[in-house]
Structure of Transcriptional regulator, LysR family:
Amino acid sequence: MKLDWNDLRVFLALERGASARAAAAQLGTSHSTVLRRLQALEDALNAQLFDRTPEGFVLTGPGERLLVKAQQIEAEVFDVQREIAGSDIELEGPVKLTAPPAVLKYLLLPMLAEFQERYPGIDLEVASTDSFADLDRRDADLAIRFSNSPDEHLVGRRLPEFHDAIYVSKDADPSDLSLGWVGWPDRRRFQERIASTPYSDRPIAWQLPGLELQAEAVRQGRGIGLLPCIMGDQDQKMKRMDADFTQPTLPAWLLQHQDLRRLERVRVFADFIFRRITTLKDKVSGR
């Protein structure tokens, strides 16, 4: 079996563009050449790498397995090019990041804009979710997760410690005992979370899903809320109940699959985000 690097380049372009036309445009070649090289690669491997669907080219099981290896080869080729030609080679291709909505909105957006200006060839794909992305299935290349024990097979860097604080509407009187907690749907977990706060004796008045809805209830004076410092400290419609009290969240991690460690564009993006968040450690901790 003989593999041609140019065939692998076509494979990667098809995975990223999901169509022969998009892959041809990316590679600067013709639609027919893309299809011909894909056929040559599938013949060499004796495997169908894509399902042809109305939505475009979708990886099959063998295609998924080849993807990781092809990306590793791409990274090695890039390393050779960079070593010989210097550090001016343009980084290109997609990088997929998933992070909680509040982290994206109140912390990461300016960083992502700065990164895009610096590396216009890298196409950032961002998923705003609290759920754990499956890095094994490539739902994301990088994930910011809050966990005591991230998956052992993932490559992780511990981010600075994030803190929550207790907030109330800017027009409210913090000593007003009628203001109960704006809590989470899981009452037991929320009670455990507020047990060590100075206001643990106040009742839970609201159980609302999602930080944005909880924050809006606090803004409207419906109660007091335990919110991330990156969120509450930037909001002009709320203030801290206690200026000095903060509480650490679960440990924050920047995670990626170990097979992507040598993919240059992922490494560059991960280093950039890690450095930027580290410089803002006082902000994320609410100091």
About this structure: The longest strand covers residues 93-99.
